[in-house]
Amino acid sequence: MMIRKLAAGALAVLMGGTVAVVLSQPTPATAERRGVAPLVIGHRGASAHRPEHTLLSYEAAIAMGADYIEPDLVATKDHVLVARHENEISGTTDVSARTEFADRRTTKTIDGRQVTGWFTEDFTLAELRTLRAKERVPDLRPDNAAFDGLAGVPTFEEVVQLAQRHGVGVYPETKHPTYFDSIGLSLEEPLLEVLKEHRVRKVFIQSFETANLRDLRAKTRLPLIQLITQGGAPYDWAAAGDSRTYDDMVKPEGLRQVATYADGIGVDTRRVIPVDADGRLQQPTTLVADAHRRRLKVHVWTVRNENSQLPLDHRLGNPASPVYQRATGDVMGWLDRLLAEGVDGAFCDDPAMGRAVVARQTADPRL
What we know:
By secondary structure, this protein is α/β, with parallel strands linked by helices. The protein contains 14 helices and 15 strands. The strands form four sheets. Strands 9-4-3-15-14-13-12-11 form an eight-stranded parallel sheet. Strands 6-5-10 form a three-stranded mixed sheet, covered by helices on one side. Strands 1-2 form a two-stranded antiparallel sheet. Strand 3, helix 2 and strand 4 form a beta-alpha-beta unit. Helix 2 runs parallel beside helix 4 and helix 13 crosses helix 14.
């Protein structure tokens, strides 16, 4: 695996059951290069190497050369934004093993779907800080489980402060904004407050919904990204009885409407290069060119390391091997293909892989 030179790396050293993270100041990508080269976005940090949405993960992503780090944002009971993949936290913390919180387990309807577990909005920040983070998919990433219990749940402000110290951007996603509005814990206002307080300008704000992005557009000129998945419709559209879907959004007329409130789109890689039923790559779509005609940036998600997460064309090794599904495939070749389509950035679970590909394409001397 290609990584940045050790002197600029994040070293996690197991010593007596604790982890000492040594993070030297990385060399930020130059403004000149950023103007022409695709962005490397650390997906939930460096989630291929550390439990996602922890400071350990974000630190590693920065050291591996990420231009931006991505926190998914949810709210606590006392209205503080924290970085978690979902507001249900049994899969990413040790809350289910904490007897003092056993009575917090409940079932809620989140975006029209029943979910059972423990939810950030039922905990104060002080209570959340007693929990320890763990790897969300240990079967896929067993090495990451070595870091279970060694990090807590960071606030959005802590993530911003880390990014500011090291000269990288932040790329927050508002999770379930309609739901959080419905319980009086709107995400947009505290998000903008933190960004304003720390004078953050290197930022993209993203959402799978549309109404909150329109609301944000009325309040800020910071760049907004409309997330678009492979199927279905934005929850706020579906809840309002709007029959339009994400498929409509990627058509020329849909992109024209997106351009009235957003600065770019964040799309599933299959929107750019589809796959067939067997997972083999098909001919690229015209989405990137169509979006660029509307002056919309195109960022793709997510470039992952594991064979099971890659198109069939870029898997490596013996399919009969018991570790084949989690073995590292041809990540760099896959990202090469995506960048060749003209995308403006890529969310990478392994930012070092992304940095290596961008460096190779742009003769970046930093690697």
